[in-house]
């Protein structure tokens, strides 16, 4: 179906907001990459360059009291959940003002108050955790949904399968997704699994699945809306496979020579920001001057954030000792 | 130990069951997950009748997937529920090692999320379970910051510690000893009580040698103490009860009094909890020690199956008696 016809179901303001978050994600991650190249960031940088539509699309489809367990290239979701560019850069710089106060780096951040489960390096570990959040919603009879994902590589983990099975058996209000960007570090999909579509994996659990154009923010948003509505209605979990391409290396130190250049050229033409601009234009929701205006606005926000993060103090060494155990007042009500 | 008026004697396993039942009645947030814990009542019948009483959303039979359901418990705990997960046998906790050490243990430290949950793990030998049903895996977790670890030796402690574990805002591993399940009984108070986490108890006072131990080995040490009493050696038996947080003060106070220490446990010797406490004593109590710190623990093998092999493997009263005599001679 024509992209614009389908996207007609999305409100003008929602689509324009998603466009803003696409640009903010790109701009923020470009700044983080630049800081990395200047040697300012000590840890790794894993960007969502070329994949921004996924996090922006699904996070826009959720209610504020839903819970997300983002994948490690879901910067847009953090932004939509209210993490400011300043906080995020502070996190990358290991500063006090970062959401983990220097205890962890890069996108390994979370906040229960903002409904974001902190990312765990061990890929797919948060899939059963998100199923458990959904279990809590079901036990308490709340109309909330958990939304959790991993990459194509992560779907080979046992925890991915254990979570899918448990959620399906108990019909939990959770949506699982996979960002299939065709590579896991340097391992191409064909060495990851003997199937071409990750969505096949959902069938074994009796879970409905859908393949979605991960570079089309409107498609991601609408598919997520449908899956979330089903989960909220008590119809159980859905699996979404977002097809996309990783346009940078696995991390910024990786030149990704193992990816054929032609493949990157092909996907460059499908860039999610260009795609969103074409859609907005087609629907009459925005034109070149508007796109330019948004670009200026996000640049300013990233500049301000960088300044904030740079001024934030580093944690003191002895803060290492703080926080191993929780106190009763920190338990979620 | 406290005794109540005209209350019935209960076994160690019944004490655990009572703790779960009372906590579920007291707090709607508490729910159970595990394999075969519903209609069947659990492999050791700890949750018999619970499904009828609390329904299938508070007593959840899970698929056979320890990592998956421990992960789910973590998620539910972060949302404000109080899951109590049953490992059918402690040995299978290895399948959930990653979720326990990487997710549950680290979430609060990394990003401030409290994970109030309990994992009950029936552990230990003496029941001919063989290499996969007799293990003492507490050492794996003792080394992992962010977890609390409990191992009761009596019905009173089993009940009180489980209640305290359920009310704690952190992930707690609760190692319950299978050998003790139906072998020891006590009369419990009728009123609600807890045994606070992090407090050891001197189960027998003595003046000559401190035996520092936990779990089923507490009873072995008490037996050895009776044998040695006749030979004029007076053992003090310190039951750690909680391994993390470790009650160092009680351990140090005992060793400062007796000047001699035996570390006794059922987990393998190398890298066990006894090794850690021995090192602590060497650091903190060196000047009051009158002899070497002795470790009595099984050899570094898996737990064998056949009766003579398992008997050889497990610490015996005679091992403690011999160790104590050697130490008394210093
Ligand atoms: C369990 C586990 N094993 C290995 C790693 C190291 N690692 C980090 S990212 C990655 C590749 C991930 O691939 P995929 O899930 O497809 O996501 P992508 O990074 O390609 O977007 C690997 C192997 C890890 N984080 N977790």
Please report the number of helical segments of chain B: 11
Average pLDDT across residues of chain A?
Answer: 96
The profile of the biggest β sheet of chain B is: 7 strands, mixed
- What proportion of the residues of chain B form beta strands (DSSP E)? 15-25%
Total number of strands of chain A: 7
Bulk shape of chain A: globular
Overall structural class of chain A, as computed from helix and strand content, comes to alpha/beta
Query: Percent helix among the residues of chain A?
Result: 40-55%
As laid out across the biggest beta sheet of chain A, the strand order is: 1-2-3-7-6
Q: Report the radius of gyration of chain B as a whole number of Å.
A: 20 Å
* Radius of gyration of chain A using CA atoms only: 19 Å
Outline the secondary-structure elements.
The complex is a heterodimer of chains A (333) and B (330).
Chain A (H helix, E strand, L loop, with lengths): L2 H5 L4 H26 L14 H9 L6 E3 L5 H6 L4 H8 L33 H15 L5 E6 L6 H12 L4 E7 L2 E2 L2 E2 H4 L7 H4 L5 E5 L3 H16 L5 E6 L17 H8 L3 H12 L4 H24 L22
Parallel strand pairs in A: 1-2, 2-3, 3-7, 6-7
Antiparallel strand pairs in A: 4-5
Chain B lengths: L8 E3 H15 L3 E5 L15 H5 L4 E3 L4 H13 L3 E5 L10 H15 L6 E6 L14 H5 L5 E3 L4 H13 L4 E6 L7 E3 L13 E4 L4 E5 L3 H13 L5 E5 L2 E3 L3 H11 L2 E4 L8 H12 L9 E3 L10 H7 L3 H12 L2
Parallel strand pairs in B: 2-3, 2-4, 4-5, 5-7, 6-7, 10-11, 10-13, 13-14
Antiparallel strand pairs in B: 1-8, 6-12, 9-11
Helix pairs in contact in B: 1-6, 3-4, 7-11
The complex binds thiamine diphosphate.
Task: Provide an overview of this structure.
Chain A is of the alpha/beta class and 333 residues long. Chain A contains 13 helices and seven strands. Chain A has helices at 3-7, 12-37, 52-60, 75-80, 85-92, 126-140, 158-169, 189-192, 200-203, 217-232, 261-268, 272-283, 288-311; strands spanning 67-69, 146-151, 174-180, 183-184, 187-188, 209-213, 238-243. In chain A, the strands form two sheets. Chain A has a five-stranded parallel sheet, with helices on both faces. In chain A, a hairpin with a 2-residue loop joins β4 and β5. In chain A, α3 (52-60) packs parallel to α10. Chain A starts with a helix and ends in a 22-residue tail after the last helix. Chain B has 330 residues and is of the alpha/beta class. Helix content of chain B is 37%, strand content 18%. The longest helix of chain B has 15 residues, at 12-26. At the A-B interface, α6 and α7 of A face α3 and α4 of B. Bound molecules: thiamine diphosphate.
């Amino acid at each position: 179906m024509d992209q614009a016809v389908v996207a007609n179901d999305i409100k003008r303001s929602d689509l324009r907001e998603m466009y803003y978050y696409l640009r903010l994600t790109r701009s923020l991650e470009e700044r983080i990459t630049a800081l990395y190249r200047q040697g300012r960031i000590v840890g790794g940088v894993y960007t969502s360059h070329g994949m921004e539509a996924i996090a922006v699309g699904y996070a826009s489809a959720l209610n504020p009291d839903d819970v997300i367990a983002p994948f490690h290239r879901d910067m847009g979701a953090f932004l939509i959940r209210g993490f400011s560019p300043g906080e995020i850069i502070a996190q990358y710089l290991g500063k006090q003002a970062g959401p983990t106060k220097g205890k962890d780096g890069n996108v390994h951040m979370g906040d229960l108050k903002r409904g974001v489960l902190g990312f765990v390096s061990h890929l797919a570990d948060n899939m059963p955790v998100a199923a458990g959040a959904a279990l809590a919603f079901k036990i308490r009879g709340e109309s909330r949904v958990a939304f959790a994902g991993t990459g194509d590589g992560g779907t080979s983990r046992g925890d991915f399968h254990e979570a899918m099975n448990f959620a399906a058996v108990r019909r939990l209000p959770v949506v699982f997704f996979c960002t299939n960007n065709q590579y896991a570090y340097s391992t191409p999909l064909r060495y990851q699994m003997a199937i071409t579509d990750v969505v096949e994996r959902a069938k074994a659990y009796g879970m409905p699945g859908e393949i979605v154009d991960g570079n089309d923010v409107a498609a991601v948003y609408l598919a997520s809306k449908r899956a979330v509505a089903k989960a909220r209605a008590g119809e159980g979990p859905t699996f979404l496979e977002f097809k996309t391409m990783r346009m940078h290396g696995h991390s910024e130190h990786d030149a990704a020579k193992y990816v054929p250049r032609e493949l990157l050229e092909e996907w460059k033409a499908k860039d999610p920001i260009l795609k969103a601009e074409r859609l907005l234009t087609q629907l009459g929701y925005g034109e070149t001057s508007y796109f330019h205006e948004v670009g200026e606005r996000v640049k300013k926000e990233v500049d301000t954030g960088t300044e904030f993060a740079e001024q934030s103090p580093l944690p003191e060494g002895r803060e290492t000792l703080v926080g191993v155990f929780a106190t009763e007042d920190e338990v979620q009500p | 130990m406290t005794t109540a008026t005209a209350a019935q004697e209960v076994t160690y396993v019944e004490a655990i069951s009572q703790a779960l039942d009372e906590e579920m009645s007291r707090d709607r947030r508490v729910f159970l997950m595990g394999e075969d814990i519903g209609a069947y009542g659990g492999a050791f019948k700890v949750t018999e009748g619970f499904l009828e009483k609390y329904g299938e959303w508070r007593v959840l039979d899970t698929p056979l997937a320890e990592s998956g359901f421990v992960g789910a418990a973590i998620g539910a705990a972060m949302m404000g529920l109080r899951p109590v997960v049953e490992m059918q046998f402690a040995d299978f906790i290895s399948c959930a090692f990653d979720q326990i050490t990487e997710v549950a243990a680290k979430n609060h430290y990394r990003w401030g999320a409290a994970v109030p949950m309990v994992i009950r793990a029936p552990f230990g030998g003496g029941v001919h379970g063989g290499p996969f049903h007799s293990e003492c895996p507490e050492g794996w977790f003792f080394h992992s910051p962010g977890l609390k670890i409990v191992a009761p030796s009596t019905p009173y402690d089993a009940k009180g510690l489980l209640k305290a574990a359920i009310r704690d805002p952190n992930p707690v591993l609760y190692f319950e000893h299978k050998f003790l399940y139906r072998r020891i009984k006590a009369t419990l108070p009728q009123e609600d009580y807890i045994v606070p986490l992090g407090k050891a108890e001197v189960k027998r006072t003595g003046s000559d040698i401190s035996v520092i131990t936990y779990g089923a080995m507490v009873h072995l040490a008490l037996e050895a103490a009776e044998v040695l009493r006749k030979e004029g050696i007076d053992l003090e038996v310190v039951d750690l009860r909680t391994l993390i947080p470790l009650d160092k003060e009680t351990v140090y106070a005992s060793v400062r009094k007796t000047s001699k220490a035996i570390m006794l446990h059922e987990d393998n010797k190398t890298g066990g909890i006894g090794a850690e406490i021995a090192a602590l004593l060497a650091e903190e109590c060196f000047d009051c020690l009158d002899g070497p710190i002795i470790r009595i623990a099984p050899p570094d093998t898996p737990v064998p199956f056949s009766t003579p092999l398992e008997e050889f493997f497990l610490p015996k009263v005679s091992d403690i008696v011999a160790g104590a005599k050697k130490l008394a001679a210093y």
